[in-house]
Structures are given as structure tokens and as C-alpha cells.
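Help! Submission page says 'invalid entity' but I think these are all valid:
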Amino acid sequence: MASVAAKKVQFLETGLSSGFWLLLGGLGLLVLFGLGAHYQMEHHGHWISGMNNQIVWGTPHVFAIFLIVAASGALNVASISSVFDKKVYKPLAPLSGLLAIALLLGGLSVLVLDLGRPERLTVAMTHYNFKSIFAWNMILYNGFLAIVAVYLWTMMERKMNGYSKPVGFAAFIWRLMLTTGTGSIFGFLVARQAYDAALLAPMFVVMSFSFGLAVFMLVLMAAFRWTGRPLGDVMVKRLKNLLGVFVAGVLYFVLVYHLTNLYATEHHGVEAFVLRDGGVYTQIFWFGQILLGSLLPLALLYHPATGSKRGAIVAAALLVILGGFAQLYVLLIGGQAYPLVLFPGYEVSSGFSEGVVNSYSPSLPEVVLGISGIAIAGIMVTIAVKVLRFLPVSLADEVVDPHYAPKA
Amino acid sequence: MAMNGLARLLRLAAGAALVLTLSAPASAVPLPEIPEAKGEHCVEDPAVMRKKHMDYLKHQRDETMHQGIRTTKYSLKQCLECHAPVKESGQAVAQEESGHFCKNCHVYAGVKIDCFECHATRPEGNANFHPMVTPGGVSLNKARDDSGALLNRVAAAHSEQAGANQ
Amino acid sequence: MSEQKQPDQSRRDFLTKGATAAAGLSIAPGVLLFGAVNARPADQAVTDQVRWGMLVDTNKCANGCDACVTACKKENGWGEQSGDESHSNELQKSQWIRKVELRHKQTGFAHSLPMMCQHCEHPPCADVCPTGASFKRADGIVLVDKHICIGCRFCMMACPYKARSFVHEELTHQRPNAPRGKGTVEACTMCVGRVDAGLRPACVESCPSQAILFGDLKDPNSEISKTVAKYASTAIRPDLGLNPGVRYQGI
């Protein structure tokens, strides 16, 4: 703890400006639309959505799972500071925890609002089937919210500061379990060709690192810009290098996943579907997930010409998020679109989409509901940084780096 | 145990609310019209049924669903068998029509029923064939209290009980 | 009016008393009771002494025939029999049982079979259900307890047989013996109400070529047990190790 830190980092609430109200109003409107979409779907039933008995999870689930995965990833910055003792990240830790809670609540809202019987949420809380990974996830989500809330308290209440490291460690372990659980929702589905892989759990963990950090960077840069607080290149450069590593990590897992499947003849059908014949899913995979979501951001982050430009870094983070949505869309909806193989070696037909690629097109209510999840998270962050001291006053280079010496 | 206590408290509160509603000036909201039932008497005393029918139904529902126990005493199907009034056509009244036993009272009490999202709201076919609906049974029914008087008796019992609890 | 006797009750009493009756007792044309031992009194819980199963002989199952599907619709009030799912598109409408036409890619051998909930011994739907709404009864029938189903559809993701449907809109005029409603998942119940009353499932009864055999797989003397012991039969996707209660001959 040798006090190398040249200056004590100060935290302050954001001010009341017209921008604050505008942001709040805009996000509020999106939430309102989302609630409207939920009401429509609830009142009429799910027939107004694009989902059906073959594609049972649709666009709302893509949004929800993205938010849940990003939530645990958003906590990374805090984990790095307290678990791995990187002092530089310490000023960012409260925002990191806040964002984790907000994103998780946003994602869970979408998940709950899409249920066939959302009013039975109490049933879900009182009837647990402990063999269900879904039930376990509910415990993991609630535990995550509680632990991160305590973690924030230990960071923001000076008397509690001493406990921040062990609590941060617990939060780190918990977030790993949480994303493992989320990945296992798919990994445990033995019947479907695209899922049923233990690899999905660690892949989701790495995905969370990447998506969560991308979201965190965007929120950080937007918050500092809109509140006129200085954010130096030292911090941004560290974050963007980290993001690059995570993006490459996800790419690696995607590669291993597909190589494994390509090796096993049993999985050739589903691989051909995703990589070559799947129409919209193939396009989303190659253009959305691989090109725009992985390769382009890597280039932007590491190329000397763009690597130090704020605009390029923002673009890279946005692309990583876009790629994340693409990846989940291909996995989730593409995985269901590919027909279940019930009779290997036979051509099959029935009045119930037997052996054909299942069709799905997202409906407006689904998209609006999904976006409202992002808006819910946004509102929570906007209000929280307004009423509590989550944001440091300055992350200028001389504040961040004790050894920083302005070039003479 | 805590859950039990809570449930009791809630039930007490619900009872109190019912008494309050019922003791309000009669002109405010007209009492629900309760259609006549078939048979001589209900499976339990009407006052007990009013308080506990949901518990009986829920208990029965779980036993039937999970254990295949299909006794008829507390089954929803059996409730409707006697309580769904039969129209002149010989068919019973459905929930969406006026005069449905369950709905009439629930609308009055402002309590949403979840049963009929899934369950049939009336017995199938011609209810007149039912053993309890023979002409003799129907004529016996005529001797019953009219519904308003019955409700008021329950309300009185409730307020007595509420008084005793205080 | 305490315990009222339902029409079924007298039949049950009759069966209980006549416990010596042989399997396959026929009391009326088209109504076949399958043995007194199966007729459980109404107030007794199901036990695991029994495992209900079906054996489909695909050699007898005629291409293009869908009598079983029609009978199921009628018995349980879905499909055009309900007339309610008018908003849902073809992919959203419920499907409890379907006829699958098969043609072998190499040999060209074509045949046909009914697909419905396979009533697995280890049902993946029940494993993944967060609330326990999907469950297996002691006698092996897999059901959805719609009272506690929250409509998350995870069971539909997990089912290898596409046996389940989600109700996409509000329904009315359900059959009293087959409650079903918006926002919950449903599937073949093996006509559980009929089975509890000592009857056979509607699809079994309706098959013009008697291609479906219904009975107790745990009773060595039942026709189904004897047949599966004598002839080769298999489950669909046996590799999953789910040991379905529905087995097939000739695939």
C-alpha cells in the first residue's frame, strides 16, 4: 500500500443539466415502449411475436442473455483492481460494480417480461427444481446482485474499505459461476445439435469479459465526455488493449468450437448450416460475428493508425457489442432453426416442420422489449451516478499514473 | 411456520376486507346474484366453503395433478357440475355469459380467478342427465335460501368472528 | 351430497370387485378395459408399481392415415377441434401428436409413424424446468403442471422430440378433461384422465389397424410386456439414454 498514488482520487455525483434530463427522458421513453410491448404480448398472447413452437426463444432472449453475460463482464474492471491488485483500475471499480447490477437487472427484466405467465414470478421464487440449471441461475443472479451490492458498499463507505478485497474476491468467483451457469443453459441441452457442448460454459465466460468490457468502456467514455470530466489516454489505452485480448479470446473459443464440431461427422450438418447453407444465419455469422464483431475491432484496436484514436476505440467497442448480438443470435436462434435430428438416415416430413429449417423473423414487440432492457440498465446507471459518488472527478493521466511525467 | 402465519394473517385481512365491503351501505354496489345450485347441499357448509373453497381446490388440484387422485368431492369439475346454471337449451352457462356462479361472486369481490384461463367453465353436454339434477333434486333446490340472504348470513358470521378476534 | 358417484366410479367399483377379470375385458364395442389390476380406486395415489407405455408397430401404421391425430384433437380439444387458436400461425399452433412420414435415403423404404411425448424415464423437460411444473408421475406419465408453469419454454428447448407446444393465445371452450391455456406449455398427457379411469388413450383406441399397443411395461403378463420381450423394438434416439415409455417396432 506504499502510497505511490500521487493524488487521492475524488468521486463526485454528476450534475443536473438539461443533458441529464434529456438522457433520462429518452431512456424512459424506451422503457415505456418496452412495457407497452410487454403488455401487448401479455394481453394477446405470444402469437403477436415471431416466436413459435420451433423457435421458442427469440429476440428478447438474445437481448436478455447479452445483458446478463455483459453484466458479469462489466464487473471485471473492479475485479482486476481488488482481486489482482491493479491500483490503476481502482477509481473505476464503483462504476464497474454499478454497471454489473444495472445490466443484470435490465437483462432479467426482459427475460421475465417475456414469460408466458410473468405474473407467476412468485411461483418461480417459491418452487425450485434443484436439478434445473435455470433454477440455479435464479439463485446465481440474486446472489450476484447481493454480493455486488455489498462490494459497492465496501468500496464506497470508507469504514468498510478494509473488507473490499475479500468481498471483491467473492464477487469474482461468483461472477465466474454465474456466466458458467448462463452458458450451461445451452451447454446442457443434449438434444440440440448446436448446443450440447461443455465448451459453451467457458466460452460464455470469455464472451462476458469481452462484451462487458466493451459496454463498460462506452459508458465510461460517454459519462466523462457528457459531464466534462477529463479522461486521459493512459486509462483508455489500458482498457482498449484489454478489450483486444478478450476479443481475440472469444475468437479462439469460436474457432475451437467449430473445429471440434467439424471433426465429428455427427455435427457436419449443423456446421454446414451455420458456416455455409444457413442463409441469414450464415451471413450473420460471417459478417456480423466474425468480420464486423471480431476482426474489424481487433484491427481498429491494434493498428497503429487507429489504435490511439478515441473515435476508433469507440467504434471498436460498438462493433464488439454488435458482434456479441450477432454471436448470440446465431447461437440461440440459428441453433433452434436447425432441425432436430430424430431419424438419422431418413428423409422426414410431417405437418409440424419436420426436418426443415425452422423460420423465424423478429417482430416489433420483441425488438422493442429487448431494447427496453438496455434502457432499464441505462436509467439505473444515469440516476445512480447522479445521486451517489460513483464517478471519479478526473481520470486525467497525472491522476491515473503516479509516474506520469508530461513530456517536456 | 412463518409462511403459515403469513397466510393466516392474509386470510384474516381478506376476511376483514370482505366484512368491510359487505357492511358498506347496500346501495353502493348491488350484491352479486348467485345462481341456484343443484343438489341438496354443498360438500361443506356454505360459510366454510366461502372461506376455504380456494384451499380445498388447491389441495385437490395438487393431488390430482401429481398423484392422480381423482375423488370428486373438492374437484373444480364437480363444483361446476352443480353450480353452473343450466340454460333453457339444456347447456350450462359458460364464464363469458352472464350468471356464472364463480364469476358473479368474484367480480363482486374483485378477486381475479385464474382457473378458467385453462379449465372448462362449464360441464360438457346436457347437464340434465346428471343424477343430482333429476326433477326431484331441482325441486329440492327451490327450498334453499335466496343468495342475498345467504351472503348476509356469512357477513354476519364474519363480523362476529372479527369482533371475537379483537 | 358428499362423495358423488361419477359414471366412471361404478365402472371402477365393478372392476375392483371383479378383480379376477382377465386382461382385455371388453364391456362394450370399442371400449376395451385392460385388466382389473390397472383400475385404481379414485382416492389412491399412483404408484411406481406400474409404468404405462405404448408400443407402435410402424409396419401396421398406414401412410397418410391420421386417425390417431384426429382422435387426440377430439379428446383433448386442440387443433381445429378447439377452433380457438385462430390468431396463431401454423408454426404457433399446438401439436400434441403428429404423423411423421419417413423415407430411407439409401434404400427408399418409406413408412410412417405417430410422434408424441415419449414419456421418458429420464425426461429432459422435467430436468430443466425451473419450477418443477414439468414432472413425471410415479406411473411414468410425463405431464406439465400448468398451475405452476411460468411459460419460460426451457422444456421445449430441452425436449429431443419436439413433443411440446406453447399456447400462443387465449383459449376458451376447453374440454373439461383437458385444461389448456395461454402462456403455458402443453403436450401429450397419454390421456391421463382416461388411463386413471381404466381406459386406453384416445390414439390407441382410434387406430384402425391397431398399430399402437398400450399397457403396463412393469407387468410381465401384459400384452405390451410380452410383445416387447418377443419382438425387436426400439426407442427414438436411444443414444440419449432417456428410456422412453413409447417404443417403436420396425424402424
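Support: the input was valid. A stray whitespace character was the problem, and the output above is from the cleaned input. Residues 1-44 of chain C form one domain.
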